[in-house]
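[job 0417] fold request received: Peptidylprolyl isomerase
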Amino acid sequence: MKINKVTAPGLIAVFSLFFSIISFGQGQQGISIDKIIARVDNHYILNSELEEMYNQYKAEGRAAPEKCQLLESLIINKMLLAKAEIDSVVVEDKEVDGELDAKMGYMVQRFGSEKNIVEAYGKSIENLKSELRTQVKEQKIVEKMQRTISGNVKITPSEVRKFFNSIPKDSLPYIPSEVEIGHIVKLGTVTREQKDKLRQQLLELKQRAEKGEDFATLAQIYSEDLGSAKNGGDLNFAKRGAMVPEFEGAALALKPGEMSDVIESQFGFHLIKLIETRGAEYHARHILLRPDYNKGTDMTSAIRALDSLRNLIEINTLKFAKAALDNSEDKETAESGGLIMDRNTGIARLTLDASMDPALYFAIDTMKVGDLSKPVAYRTEDGRSAMRIIWYKSKSEPHTANLRDDYEKLSQIVLSNKRNNALEEWFKKAQGDVFISIEPEYKDCKVLGLEALANDI
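[job 0417] inference complete; emitting C-alpha cells
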C-alpha cells in the first residue's frame, strides 16, 4: 500500500542526519544479523544500515540520535532516490568517480596505506570501492534531486532583515570569534633516490618475468594496486582515454604479450603487460609501486616556490588570492583565492575554538591579523607531504548577532529555511507517488508521522 499522508515538519532536520556521516562501514563489528526493515518502491533499508549509522556516531564520540530519527532519514533518502528514478534524474559517472577518489584518499590518509585498509576491513580495495561507489552514486543523485527541488529558491535582503527583526532581542545568539584564513600549498617531490629505487625494483621484476616467472603471480605478490593485485594485476578492458596518458601511451605501444619499460604516472611507477586489444579497447596487467610520501620526500622546491610567492605578496607585487589561484596545489581552496571554507556552512569563516583544525589553531596563535607565515609543513587530505604558507586575513570579536556583521550567516539561515520549506512541500506531494512499508517492530517510531506498516516487505 501507499502512505497517503506525511507530516512535513522536522523532515529536513532528520534528513540532514543522513549526510552528516561519511560512512565507510565498521568492518564486521557492531553489525547485527541483517534483515530488511523498510522498503521504498524498489529500494530496501537493511537493519545493518541503521546499525551502521548509529555506531558511526558512537565511534566518533558524538551523541547518537534516536534510531527512529535515523530510520526516518534513511527512508527520506530512499524516497528521493525513488522519485529520481521516476523523474529520470541521473548523475554522470565522472562525477561519481571524482567523489569516490576523494573518499578513498581520505581513507588512505586515515589508515596510512591501502594495505592497512584491506587488513582493517577484511575486504579488497576493489570490493570496498565497489560498495562505496554505490553509496556515493546514491548520495550524488539525492543531492541532485535536492537541487532540482529547491535550487531555484532565492532570497532578498528584505527577507533577511525581516528574519533578523523577528528574533527577540534577548534571544539573539552570541557569536564567538571567527577568522578568515587562507593558504597556498605546494606538494613535496619524491626524491631521486626513492624514484631510482622503485625503478630498479620494477626492472628486476621485469627480468624475472622475462626469465619465465608468471607476471600475474609477481603482480599478486608485489603490486601496490591492491584492487588489481589479487587478480594478477589484471585491469580488464579499458576504453581509450580512461587511463592516465602515460599509462595508456605505453600500453598501446606494446604488442600482445609484451612488457613496457618502467612508466611513471601520478599514481607511481608501473610495469605494464599488454594482453590484447579489441577495437578502441585494450586489456592489460600491471605492477604498481608507489612512492612513500611519509619519507624520502624533497621539500626544497616547495619551500623555494613558497618563499618566492611570499616575498611578492609582501611587497604587494602579487595579491594572495591570485597567487593561490595560479599556484596552490590544494585545488579546492585555490578556486576560492586560497581561503579555507567551513565545511558545514560553506562560508570562508572558521570559528576560533576547539573545533578548528589544531594545526591552523596553533599556527595563527602566534600570528597577527594580516600576517603571512613562512613555509610550514602540511599533510594533505590524501596523506601527501607538502608545505604551505598561511595568511591570517581577519578576525571578528565575540559579539551578539547583528545585521551588519553577520548578514552572510543570517542570509544562509534564511536561504536554508526557504529551501527546507520547498523540500517539505515536495515531500507532501511526492509521498503519494511511492510505496513505503516499514517493519512493525518500529511501530512506535511513527516514521514520517505515521504508524509503521508491514506490507509485502
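[job 0417] notes: DSSP finds 16 helices and 15 strands in the chain. The CA atoms of residues 4 and 432 lie 5 Å apart.
[job 0417] exit 0
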